[in-house]
Write a structure and sequence with these properties.
Layout: H1 5-21, E1 22-23, H2 26-31, E2 45-47, H3 52-65, E3 69-72, E4 87-90, E5 97-101, E6 106-109, H4 115-123, E7 127-128, H5 141-147, H6 154-157, E8 164-170, E9 176-179, E10 181-183, H7 187-195, H8 198-208, H9 210-215, H10 229-237, E11 240-242, H11 243-247, E12 256-263, E13 265-266, E14 272-278, H12 284-291, E15 298-303, H13 304-310, H14 312-315, E16 323-329, H15 334-345, E17 356-358, H16 361-380, H17 401-414, E18 419-424, E19 429-434, H18 441-461, H19 480-484, H20 486-499
Parallel strand pairs: 2-4, 3-4
Antiparallel strand pairs: 1-2, 5-6, 6-12, 7-13, 8-9, 8-12, 10-11, 14-16, 14-17, 15-16, 15-18, 18-19
Helix pairs in contact: 1-3, 8-20, 13-16
The structure holds flavin-adenine dinucleotide.
């Protein structure tokens, strides 16, 4: 009897990892064919490594059989970046916190460590990783690095990139790279290049396209739109290759992270949360502008239409409020800050009711509840129109957020639906969830037209970017060339081709001309997370 190529491949995997380490039953294939995006790609198998050696071995076997590989952490990607047609590498068993240095303030972890577990470990010792994605109860470190995640606190604490000190990476050819800042004029760089010549090709390509790369920057506070070539080029100008930064935000397309060393910060002794409701939406922009210089660690806003969607009564939201703002501070004389806001800032605006300032953690949690409930409430709305994510993560220059929210509100009305519009306003990062039924041909056409209008406005009118934090994945791959322009896109592609010449690492993600809806599937049986 002859064995099929699929069997040979699976046999090789099973021989290496045992029955327990390899899954290809129908239920598992279905489970791993989705992430939190609307995309759907059935893998050939799932492999669950227990060590870096296992990761190297998976790559060897995949390489031998020409099968692509998609690293996956918790699978909460909102852009379809954690699914793939070959092997899905489930890293959840690589979950050890290896070393913590309180004196220097860093921690060394495996990529499958859940953020919640890491923060619980750190909190007991007075530290934390101050990144708070909405998925903080589920996401894992490898996935946060993969997407360069940020969240509620990014206005003050930035993105995952700001905390990555070094990464251990298994490259496509199975070699292991210690990725960290390396001076270009020294033996260390020549040693690295002699082992990984592709890195010199990357350096040359970035040098050749330096002007276009630096000129392609957009006036936004953060982004998760491909490799951060501008930052890398600037650092190269100073004679250092920030190797780890090449892999942050690379969405599994350049290598597999097997260890991350992360900077951690002390837990602030106290915080204060302020809740403000505004009678006039127009006041939102100037109010945010007045608050930003005071150094908040979070500024989250929800517009009036979204407050209607949320349901005002359930959350005690005044009927006439046209915007809600949550602001948090974690440093300085908090009482004096609150007094200053109440006495000097608030009177300049038409507040629906007096500012509420909460120091008590329980009350703070209650104030955050409306913001945190918006998305689940959207999900629970009855009817076939659901908040599928296809335009959900734009970022624009901070000063233009109110104008941008007005644009989104008008866009929603123009296409005859309702939407959730909320987000990290201090960063200019909005989450936009218009409700449609993509299985209805009329709605599908409306979604396509809306997406075109949306892309044009974000990129051209607002000079923004399509993803502030959720990544390019499959959902936004078709517009990546427009974000940075053809030359810089080609430079990004050259980085990918140098490090993964056979295109085995997460193909279809980040570099693809497939339209955003082509990988969507199984929507009838799924929740639009
Ligand atoms: C309800 C909800 C709220 C969210 N809120 C936020 C938010 O506020 N801010 C935010 O930034 N994101 C948010 N997200 C998106 C997502 O949760 C984050 O990007 C998160 O960091 C992904 O982590 P994960 O463990 O699920 O990674 P996955 O989804 O498994 O993977 C993400 C990417 O990383 C790659 N990857 C994973 N592990 C590795 C590895 N070992 N080596 C190389 N590449 C790897 C994957 O291939 C993929 O490209 C939200 C998602 C949901 C569902």
């Amino acid at each position: 009897m002859t064995t099929s190529p699929k069997d040979e491949f699976l046999e090789a995997l099973r021989e290496a990892f045992g029955v327990d380490g390899v899954l290809d039953d129908e239920r598992s294939l279905r489970e791993y064919s989705t992430d939190a995006s609307p995309c759907f790609v059935v893998p050939r198998a799932i492999v669950r490594p227990r060590s870096e050696e296992d990761v190297v071995r998976v790559l060897e076997i995949c390489s031998e059989h020409g099968v692509p590989i998609t690293p996956r952490a918790a699978g909460t990607s909102l852009s379809g970046a954690a699914i793939g047609s070959g092997v899905v590498l489930d890293t959840s068993r690589l979950a050890t916190i290896r070393e913590f240095d309180p004196r220097e303030g860093w921690v060394r972890v495996e990529p499958g460590v859940p953020l919640a577990d890491l923060n619980a470990f750190l909190r007991e010792r007075g530290f934390r990783l101050p990144l708070e994605p909405g998925s903080l109860d589920w996401c894992r470190i490898g996935g946060m690095v993969g997407h360069n995640a940020s969240g509620y606190q990014s206005v003050k604490y930035g993105q995952t990139r700001d905390y990555v000190l070094r990464l251990r990476i298994v490259l496509a050819d199975g070699s292991v790279l210690e990725a960290r800042d390396v001076p270009l004029h020294g033996t260390e760089w020549s040693d690295i290049v002699s082992r990984v010549p592709a890195l010199e090709a990357v350096r040359r390509s970035l040098e050749a396209h330096r002007e276009a790369i630096l000129g392609s920057r957009r006036p936004v506070k953060k982004h998760s739109c491909g490799y951060d070539l501008a930052h890398i080029s600037e650092t190269l100008d100073r004679g250092v290759f920030p190797l780890a930064d090449l892999f942050v935000g690379s969405e599994g397309t350049l290598g597999i992270i097997t260890e991350a060393t992360l900077r951690v910060l002390r837990v602030p002794p106290r915080t204060v949360t302020l809740l403000l409701f505004l009678d006039a939406f127009d006041d939102l922009g100037p109010l945010v502008r007045d608050l930003l210089p005071l150094g908040p660690c979070a500024i989250e806003g929800i517009d009036g239409d979204s407050l209607d969607v949320l349901g005002r009564e359930a959350y005690g939201i005044p009927p006439q409020a046209r915007a809600m703002l949550l602001v948090e501070f974690d440093e300085g004389d908090l009482e004096a800050l609150v007094a200053r806001i109440v006495r000097e800032v608030a009177p300049r605006y038409r507040l629906t009711r007096p500012v509420e300032a909460a120091f008590d953690p329980d009350r703070q949690a209650a104030l955050w509840k409306a913001r945190r409930s918006l998305f689940p409430t959207l999900l629970r709305r009855p009817g076939s129109r659901r908040p599928w994510g296809f335009v959900e993560d734009p970022i624009v220059p901070t000063a233009r957020v109110p104008e941008f929210i007005e644009f989104l509100t008008e866009l929603t009305r123009r296409y005859g639906t309702v939407a959730g519009i909320y987000g990290h306003l201090g960063d200019g990062n909005t989450h936009y969830r218009p409700l449609f039924d993509p299985t209805d041909p009329g709605d599908f056409e409306r979604m396509r037209a809306l997406r075109t209008d949306f892309d044009d406005a974000v990129l051209d009118r607002f000079r923004g970017a399509p993803s502030g934090e959720h990544g390019i994945g499959r959902i936004r791959a078709d517009i990546l060339p427009r974000v940075w322009g053809p030359e810089v896109y080609a430079a990004m592609r050259s980085v990918k081709d140098a490090l993964d010449p056979r295109g085995l690492l997460n193909p279809g993600v980040m570099f693809s001309s497939a339209a955003w809806w082509e990988a969507w599937g199984g929507l009838d049986a799924r929740e639009p997370l």
